[in-house]
TrEMBL record:
This is Uroporphyrinogen decarboxylase. It catalyses: uroporphyrinogen III + 4 H(+) = coproporphyrinogen III + 4 CO2; uroporphyrinogen I + 4 H(+) = coproporphyrinogen I + 4 CO2. SUPFAM superfamilies: UROD/MetE-like. Catalyzes the sequential decarboxylation of the four acetate side chains of uroporphyrinogen to form coproporphyrinogen and participates in the fifth step in the heme biosynthetic pathway. Isomer I or isomer III of uroporphyrinogen may serve as substrate, but only coproporphyrinogen III can ultimately be converted to heme. In vitro also decarboxylates pentacarboxylate porphyrinogen I. It is found in: Cytoplasm. Its main location: cytoplasm. Its EC number is 4.1.1.37. Belongs to the uroporphyrinogen decarboxylase family. Residues 31-40, 151-167 form the Uroporphyrinogen decarboxylase (URO-D) domain. GO terms for cellular component: cytosol. Pfam families: URO-D.
Length: 367
């Protein structure tokens, strides 16, 4: 094992419900966390971030630790997710990425043609380029005091490729998809290069103290089954396989891996056979049919429509109850089908968490 980080003597884990659910084991209540639980819907987040550059914040382990812990001070979430961003990988490859207030992440010089691949670093030393994330993870794991497990994450190769070519968010991703149809060979080269960095990055996160890993393929939905099967799935599989091998070879503990391919319902069966312990679902999939289609092979995570948080509390509770009945209480991690929005009421988030805990305890008692 490399000697850049020697995290040790982490506090003992007190609430392992999330890890047990990921492994399909018995739980006393269904665990719950929310994508973007550290975010602008929290006044304390807005205050801590005020006037500071987004990626500067990402580079400060102290700031990332504080932002990660904020939601846990308010709500009894069963997991924490390290505050960072998926776009730190394109930065590590040498691309400039800026967070433009009101616009989102922006690449002043996106990749336009295959020749532009030469501008990327061919070899990335993840400890040199992304060591700040590892430091944030180690610090946060200590400061969590064993309250709940800490999740590390990455963007999936296709989603990162899409940002690197589009230069930011996009409704169609037509520039990135153009590469898939016009430059398939260069697309595979880029996807392979991203996969290699992602594998090292995820292993480094576990070495630093991450207790689970989530891979976000946020832009799976703009592909169809054929393109996903060629340009995303093989890389997602390569990531889970290689990370598991590398953890074993390095004497590191095995951690559950979660794959979240947003709007990739067409690939549910394939994703459930891709060596991820957990498949994350967006809200367009019915819980019962997701269970049937994944055949009990994996644990499932998701999938309440985030906009259901705009409903009154009683309605949130009803929606949660139905969702729990659909998924069942075993091998299930409650979450939203995508991240929280900045205009959401923290109280509704509290109502969501409370409803998951209380309804699941009730359902488990009835068993
Ligand atoms: O100033 C701010 O606070 C900006 C808002 C924000 C936040 C809170 C961004 C910009 N990133 C983040 C943090 C973040 N990003 C986390 C933190 C941990 C947590 O969940 O609490 C995570 C996991 C991400 C991952 C991320 N970044 C994804 C994958 C998840 C998803 O939403 O699909 C994506 C696509 C990004 C890119 C990104 N970063 C930020 C924005 C606004 C976007 C989306 C841009 C777009 O496509 O339009």
């Amino acid at each position: 094992m490399n000697n850049h980080i020697i995290p040790k003597d982490f506090p003992e884990l007190k609430n392992d419900t999330f890890l047990r659910a990921a492994a399909g084991e018995e739980v006393e209540h269904v665990p719950v966390w929310c994508m973007r639980q550290a975010g602008r819907y929290l006044p304390e987040f807005r205050e801590a971030r005020a006037g500071k550059d987004f990626f500067e914040t990402c580079r400060s382990p102290e700031a990332c630790c504080e932002l990660t812990l904020q939601p846990l001070r308010r709500f009894p979430f069963d997991a924490a997710i390290i505050f960072s961003d998926i776009l730190v990988i394109p930065q590590a490859l040498g691309m400039d990425v800026q967070m433009v207030p009101g616009k989102g992440p922006t690449f002043p010089e996106p990749l336009k043609e295959p020749e532009d691949l030469q501008t990327l670093r061919s070899k990335v030393d993840v400890h040199a380029e992304l060591g700040y994330v590892f430091k944030a993870i180690t610090l946060t794991r200590h400061r969590l005091e064993g309250k709940v497990p800490l999740i590390g994450f990455t963007g999936a190769p296709w989603t990162l490729m899409a940002y690197m070519i589009e230069g930011g968010g996009s409704p169609t991703h037509s520039k990135a998809k153009r590469w898939l149809y016009r430059h398939p060979e260069a697309s595979h080269r880029l996807l392979k290069q991203l996969t290699d960095v992602i594998v090292e990055y995820l292993v480094g996160q576990v070495a630093a103290g991450a207790q689970a890993l989530q891979v976000f393929d946020s832009h799976a939905g703009c592909l169809g089954p054929v393109e996903f099967g060629e340009f995303s799935l093989p890389y997602l599989r390569d990531i889970s396989k290689r990370v598991k091998e590398r953890l074993k070879d390095s004497g590191l503990e095995k951690v559950p891996m979660i794959v979240f391919a947003k709007d990739g319902h067409y690939a549910l069966e394939d994703l459930s056979q891709s060596h991820y312990e957990v498949v994350g679902l967006d809200w367009t999939i019915d819980p019962q049919s997701a269970r049937l289609r994944t055949d009990g092979k994996v644990s499932l995570q998701g999938n309440m429509d985030p906009c259901a948080l705009y409903a009154p509390k009683e309605r949130i509770s009803e929606i949660v109850k139905k969702m729990l009945e659909g998924f069942g209480t075993r091998g299930y991690i409650a979450n939203l089908g995508h991240g929280l929005y900045p205009d959401m009421d923290p109280e509704s988030v509290g109502a969501f968490v409370e409803a998951v805990h209380s309804h699941s305890r009730q359902l488990l008692k009835l068993k």
